[in-house]
Amino acid sequence: MRQIQIFDTTLRDGEQSPGCGMNVKEKIDMSRQLESLGVSVIEAGFASASQADFNAVRAVAKEIQRTRVTSLSRALAKDIDSTWEALRHAKYPRIHLYIATSDLQLDLKLQKSREEVLEQTAQMVRYAKKLCEDIQFSAEDATRSDPDFLARVFETAVAAGATVINVPDSVGYATPEEYGNLIRFLRGSVKGAEHVQFSTHCHNDLGLAVANSLSAILAGADQVECTINGIGERAGNAAMEEIVMSLRSRADFYGAYTNVDPAQIYKTSRLLSAITGVKVQPNKAIVGENAFSYENGMHLQGSMAERQTYEIMRPEQVGLTNNKMLLGKHSGRNAFSERVKELGYSVDFELSNKLFKRFKDLTDRKKSVSDKDIEALVRSVLAQEIPKSYSLERYVINSGNTITPTSSIALTCADGARVEKVAIGFGPVDASFNAINKIIGRAVKLEEYSIGAVTAGRDAQGEVSVKISSDGATAKGYGLSTDVIEASILAYINAINNLIYEKTREDM
Asked: Is 65 left (phi over 0), alpha (psi -120 to 50) or beta?
């Protein structure tokens, strides 16, 4: 069987999805998980787009040791220089160049002729090749380009030293049959095609990104660009988990496989949701909450008798546990640590101590602790792994339907000082956020607020994600508690700490 390379662009194209921006720490956390997942390439960002992007790409390049790291770059010398400066410390670097090739883009955006595009392609691929051995070249809007001209552009890139040729369906325009035929045409028409990898990059504007990618694999594509949960610009990108499990479930048809560890898929999906605050829709294939659920009585009966009757894959294959082992207040450190390890998390001694303390605190509030609870604890502790400018000491809420909600918040500052303020609001959460704003002495705007339950039941933990902005900068925060008001306060404080931390890093 053929191996298909999984090129993950969650940190670049995925981040372009509204509400999915990530800071440097979040990108590092995500890239570590992508490496554990087993993707072939991590596109860490667009280094030349901004200083923040540059910093993130450089940080990921330094962090990742087993996986190839790349950054997107326009086919311009100054952008290539910036990209290489960010990537140069990577163990396995790749420069990813692109230029538009459709007549529409040439006329309206680039204002260049076809011959000028060919010349720029040759010059810039050669220029990048002097810096980095591994060069991927993308033809933006390839599916709306003249096929013969597209072949000429790719042939020029290959001759100049490109190692990977990417065929983006940039606006989700193609159909599976069209896209597959285009890959076949290019593989048969581009001189030197046998010496390079052919890659796909499909958008989901018509809901065909995964179908187009799979059609391309049948046509001979070697690499698929995709994202976790299918996030991305507009309607998103091809969903990585759907590509991987399609190839795995239908290996008989596709005759191809990936090196992705399916047992890490669900955890990766949940981590991305926790970082971005963007929840996965319940009916999402593979990772949605309803992906392995039944309501029809006959289907449920059939599944219980023999799972293969209505399941083409098992939830355990993608890392979705059945809460087979519940822990409680009498569970010891060894049992807890072993369960954390079984769930796929590798934690050091210090982090293990923090997790166990949070676990014991949770058992005082919750009779039994499930796998989902433990995973949420891990995400919560990881979110707090930054220098804390402020920590919650206590809060007191006075609220009701006949009084003005009031919150008293006491925070401990980094220098050990204790500050307490009182504020009113439209509700207890709003009042609490207003009190925190008084303490920190700066105008903070709440941009996004998301809340969800980790498990079912009245004692379920609440997960809260927020996005805030202040003085042109933005940051996200994550909070977890059986009390949703406390979870909201913790998320808000976490976001403020992230905001201050990122500002400090920029000033260094």
From this structure: alpha
